[in-house]
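[job 4471] stage=fold_predict status=RUNNING
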Amino acid sequence: ASESGDPGPEAGDSASESEDPAPESEDPAPESEDPAPESGDPAPESEDSGPESGDSASESRDPGPEAGDSASESGDPGPEAGDSASESGDPGPEAGDLAASGDPGLESGGPGPESGGPGDLGPEAVDSAPQPGDSASESGGPGDSGPETVDSEPETGDQAPDLEEEVVNPPYTVRLTGEAVRVTFPDYTIEVSHGSPFGITSLQLTRQFVNFADAQLPLADWEWFWFGVPGRGRPDRSIKLLQAEWGLPLIEQREDLVSLTYRRSDVLLEGVAVEVVFLLSALRSQFDVTYTIDNQSDRILPAPYVMVGFPGFANHRWVSAVASAHEERQTAYSSFWVEARELSLQDYLLLRHDVAPEPGREQELKGEVVISQGSRVFTLSSSFLSQGEELAVYSAHTNKDHYLTSHLYLTNRDLPSGSSRSMTIHYVAGVAVID
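[job 4471] inference complete, writing structure tokens
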């Protein structure tokens, strides 16, 4: 199965071995890539859930590469050994530019997205489409940003919007294709896989020839989930949800959006459920992905930790720039795939942005990838708004020889029994033309 991305080398992975962001507490920190399983354990081999860092939050809980870490410390979940990841699939830019002629009349500009109506290459990345949800919400309810500030009793159907059961002649099509749901809107087409891997396995704007997603690994994935201190050789204390089978989603449709809800019960502990809702806009190339932890067990979940796509695993052979909320990193080569090979590097950190959570203070994190295709520049941007209620949170882009990973690493405060906590990531895809 595909391996995911977390800024941290994996033990036994095709990527360099490094450390694991598993919290260092009483339990020995998990080995590189896998936060819980020890080497030799049948646990999923991919990236580690994040190298340890000096995050402001408790060291025992926030896995992640230290800012300034080099190579293997960058931390990034990667495909299992033998996985060709992005090497298979898209032909790299070096194989010939797919510059499109007959471009619609987009205004010239830098690598920023530009608006566009149906049939156009995509709307502005800054366009505020009908927000299916804010940066985050509690129990799936729209309006909140970041993990909930107050735990609340989750109610049935909280995470799913109140949508009409039937839409007459919607401006889009929804169909099942094997292990995925494929939705085609006027401005973009998206495919979400509910098998292994779990996440967005295809994302393209109308008339975009190069896919935003990697050929083997998904965007908007849920890489790791655990609570407490995951111990070595303790697969019962951490799980790689990217490799799990989630089953068919609940599909709800409205004229202006489509909702896909995936849920798994009794995860790591009886009574603990995890849920992911994709709220896809039919009006613009924008969508929200909400991740929820629902604790209906008889115990408190200590410091629940999640590692999710931000935006995830992008098309390695074509991505030429990445950005965080504070800075941008461009490659001097045609893509980061070429750069890793030319520099003979297996695993190194490109960018990392740490946030020191402060209750009541909003801080934005951003994960962006840029694909250059001839005179057109396609941008996929993901954003998350921290409300300061987390113990620790940071974003990171890590380059490896076989794939590029961009993820968000967040350690929550303890989650009481009978409550849930959600976080929402907002996505915008756009295109611009460069003269």
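[job 4471] summary: The longest helix spans residues 336-342.
[job 4471] exit 0
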